[in-house]
Specification:
- The chain is mainly alpha-helical.
- It has one domain.
- Helix 1 runs antiparallel to helix 2 and helix 2 runs antiparallel to helix 3.
- It is elongated, with a radius of gyration of 18 Å.
- Keywords: Membrane, Transmembrane, Transmembrane helix.
């Protein structure tokens, strides 16, 4: 089945633009949340404000590592793979493995806090 290269290129361009926009939005919104928690939260919130701030920090860190990794997801049958193109930011295999691990740990940290 032939593939239209122009369509695939357009989809990849939209995906890259969405990654950069979502990173910027994450930094702005989570930064605003952290600012509001630090300056406007009442004492009655107690330790809940630290939980909310940790979610915001992990959201920023996850967005940053997601921007660096720019994963391509591949699902085949019961398997799921995240693929990273090393040439995007010039990473070697060992640094790419570290960054992929950091990306997963930031995501799982938010899940474990719940």
């Amino acid at each position: 089945m032939p593939t239209n290269v122009g369509v695939v290129h357009s989809i990849m361009l939209v995906a890259h633009v969405a990654e950069y926009l979502s990173f910027a939005l994450s930094v702005v919104v989570n930064g605003l949340l952290i600012y509001l928690i630090k300056t406007k939260s009442r004492k009655e919130m107690g330790s809940y404000k630290y939980l909310m701030m940790s979610f915001a920090f992990f959201g920023i860190f996850f967005s940053a590592t997601d921007l660096l990794v720019q994963p391509l997801m591949h699902v085949y049958g019961p398997t799921f793979n995240a693929i990273m193109i090393l040439s995007t930011f010039g990473f070697n295999k060992s640094s790419a493995a570290v960054i992929m691990g950091m990306r997963a740990s930031f995501h799982l940290s938010k899940v474990c806090i719940i």
